[in-house]
Every structure is written in C-alpha cells, then in structure tokens.
Amino acid sequence: EVQLEQSGGGLVQPGGSLRLSCEASGVTFNTYWMHWVRQVPGRGLVWVSTIDSDGRSPLYADSLRDRFTISRDNAGNTLYLQMNRLRVEDTAVYYCARGERSGYYYGLDVWGQGTTVTVSS
Amino acid sequence: EVVLTQSPATLSLSPGERATLSCRASQSGSSYLAWYQHKPGQAPRLLIYDASNRAPGIPARFRGSGSGTDFTLTISSLEPEDSAVYYCQRRSNWPLMYTFGQGTKLEIE
C-alpha cells in the first residue's frame, strides 16, 4: 500500500522557519513528481509547490517562491518543504501529494495526512 | 494565469438525487482536469482525472465530463457519505502550474 507520512508542522512565530517532511512508502518514489498543497482555515485548497522526479525543476506559486523551497531525497524516499520568513497568513494545513508518473499527470492520487502549521506570536 | 470558477458554491440535495457540479476555466488549455472530494479532517481524495477518467476504486456514480473551458462532475444516486467539498483542479502546460477551483460544498440532507 502506498503511503505518505507527514511530519514537521507546529507553532512558529512570524518571521520564523519550519521544514515539513513527507516520507513515502510502498512506491517507487523516484518515478513520481511530488506536490505540496495547503488549506488555510475556512478556505479552499491551494497549490503551493511541485518538484519533478529527479528534483531538478521545482515550481512554486508566485506568491511563495521567494520564501519556500521544495526538495526531495530520492534515496530516502522523502519530500521536503522549507518555509522561511513565515507570515500569519501561512497558517494552514499542508498536504503532500503524489503527482505525475513518467511525466504524465493523472491527478494527485495519493495524499499525506496533512500537517498543521500555525504562525502566531 | 488560469482561474477556475466552480458553481454553485453550495448544493443541498436529498439521498438518491443527482448532483451536477460545474467548473469553468478562464481560458482553454490542457485536458489535465481533475476532481477531488474533501471531507473535514481527511485528506482530499482523487475522483476523476483527465476530465472524464475515474480514479481506481471510485464508484461509477461519479462521472466527469467536459472539455475546453467547461467541465462537469455528476454524482448520481447520492448517498449521505457524499457530503463533502468538491474541487476541480487543472494542470496548465504553459506556463506549468496548477490551479484549484474555490470548491462546491455538497450537503446531503
């Protein structure tokens, strides 16, 4: 069974940093693109970032590219999201999700359980 | 940048009825259009990809259709557990990016 296990959320002060992790099991991790999606409380899903299978081509939502960095460790089957200079409006549940297989998009078919990030003083 | 507009914002129906959810894109483009079901406290669940292909394990009651700028998710013979927020999402190829609609809340009463 394919699973994505998330960790790394929590409470952080404005201006602080946090790194989210997403460990994959039961899947050939290095053949898939991976994504981060977030949901601000009371709002809808928003795409955050995407990384291709070999980690060479990260993509970001325009408003986040200067503060967030996506990366992956294929040897360790783990996806990361480094979040710097966090703002109150970054408070959300963050999900990792599996995307493209061999470059073709079949939707985000496997999701992590979500991790809560709270930015507050 | 593509904008996806979903309608209606809220839909209230009874068990056994049919739900029709709309997703309209601000511009035509790729057919990489997906639908997700999201219940409180759970991760989103992929229902449909490529506008009309059901994901593995998704019941035949869920049907996706459409092309270009207009897409529809139809859920026939509603069941109480279908209560959720439904999102459409599109992958645009140029520039490469991903966009979600704002969601339709489906209430089964």
In short:
The complex is a heterodimer of chains A (121) and B (109). With 121 residues, chain A is an all-beta fold. Chain A has strands at 3-7, 10-12, 18-25, 32-39, 45-51, 58-60, 68-73, 78-83, 92-101, 110-111, 115-119.
Structure description:
The complex is a heterodimer of chains A (121) and B (109). The model of chain A has no long low-confidence stretch (mean pLDDT 96). Helix content of chain A is 0%, strand content 52%. The radius of gyration of chain A is 14 Å and the shape is globular. Chain A contains no helices and eleven strands. In chain A, the strands form two sheets. In chain A, strands 2, 4, 5, 6, 9, 10 and 11 form a seven-stranded mixed β-sheet that branches. Chain A has 121 residues and is mainly β. Chain B has no helices and eleven strands. With 109 residues, chain B is an all-beta fold. In chain B, strands 2, 4, 5, 6, 9, 10 and 11 form a seven-stranded mixed β-sheet that branches. Chain B has a four-stranded antiparallel β-sheet with strand order 1-3-8-7, with no helix packed on it. In chain B, strand 9 and strand 10 form a beta hairpin. At the A-B interface, strand 5 of A face strand 4, strand 5, strand 9 and strand 10 of B.
